[in-house]
TrEMBL record:
<comment type="function">
    <text>Transfers mannose from GDP-mannose to dolichol monophosphate to form dolichol phosphate mannose (Dol-P-Man) which is the mannosyl donor in pathways leading to N-glycosylation, glycosyl phosphatidylinositol membrane anchoring, and O-mannosylation of proteins; catalytic subunit of the dolichol-phosphate mannose (DPM) synthase complex.</text>
</comment>
<comment type="subunit">
    <text>Component of the dolichol-phosphate mannose (DPM) synthase complex.</text>
</comment>
<dbReference type="GO" id="GO:0046872">
    <property type="term" value="F:metal ion binding"/>
</dbReference>
<dbReference type="GO" id="GO:0006488">
    <property type="term" value="P:dolichol-linked oligosaccharide biosynthetic process"/>
</dbReference>
<comment type="pathway">
    <text>Protein modification; protein glycosylation.</text>
</comment>
<dbReference type="GO" id="GO:0005789">
    <property type="term" value="C:endoplasmic reticulum membrane"/>
</dbReference>
<protein>
    <recommendedName>
        <fullName>Dolichol-phosphate mannosyltransferase subunit 1</fullName>
        <ecNumber>2.4.1.83</ecNumber>
    </recommendedName>
</protein>
<dbReference type="GO" id="GO:0061061">
    <property type="term" value="P:muscle structure development"/>
</dbReference>
<dbReference type="Pfam" id="PF00535">
    <property type="entry name" value="Glycos_transf_2"/>
</dbReference>
<keyword id="KW-0479">Metal-binding</keyword>
<dbReference type="InterPro" id="IPR029044">
    <property type="entry name" value="Nucleotide-diphossugar_trans"/>
</dbReference>
<feature type="domain" description="Glycosyltransferase 2-like">
    <location>
        <begin position="17"/>
        <end position="204"/>
    </location>
</feature>
<dbReference type="GO" id="GO:0006506">
    <property type="term" value="P:GPI anchor biosynthetic process"/>
</dbReference>
<dbReference type="InterPro" id="IPR039528">
    <property type="entry name" value="DPM1-like"/>
</dbReference>
<keyword id="KW-0464">Manganese</keyword>
<keyword id="KW-0256">Endoplasmic reticulum</keyword>
<keyword id="KW-0328">Glycosyltransferase</keyword>
Amino acid sequence: MASRRTPKNRGSREKYSVLLPTYNERENLPLIVWLLVKYFGETGYNYEIIVIDDGSPDGTLEVAEQLQKIYGQDKILLRPRASKLGLGTAYIHGVKHATGNFVFIMDADLSHHPKFIPEFIEKQKEGDYDLVSGTRYGGNGGVYGWDLRRKLIRYRLISAVLTSSCLLVTSRGANFLSQVLLRPGASDLTGSFRLYKKKVLENLVERCVSKGYVFQMELIIRARQLNYTIGEVPISFVDRVYGESKLGGSEILSFTKGLLTLFATT
């Protein structure tokens, strides 16, 4: 397990690009950026943070501009878009601007703690993995802080997919069903805290057809099809600190359609 006592002076050829898609994250963005700077700084890895804001009406982009002034244009890159175009396309847009040879994808709402980043990096080095995925369902990983509303949304996602067979299962159960049907070689298909070799991510996004929340699942499935190696790091997923979940009715419908398409085409 990596620690903050890891020696500095890393190899100059290694650079990590962090993709942060944002929509109405003005409260969370300064915190997540500060934590990223802290953990990358303590471990000595070269990095950049790419903020991909989708026209947030709450002033997220203006906050990002202030953060760029604080930390520098070489560390905070702003690659905004005019409107909310979907998570999958945000990653596609972001990776085009990444200058690192490794790419982290993660949420900007503090659900993913940057303290795990050194563990991702050490895991990748350990097996020269093509991608390393954070897992809530392996080792000491877990989910914390979900309120009743969030649990109900999760239940609606699952039940919408499984209505035809009248199954009532937890998120862990739905994940298990996906394992049986898709055999992805990873324990957490819908997680969005991952580390990729940049060339691997570029290759995967070219093949993916999903644009919404199912995009994360398709990335793993395509990786398995292309025989990419997958490592895992147990993580603690914590519900957002500020703001509301953006997983509403339209996203649930999109997720369900995308998941069924994935089942049928892989």
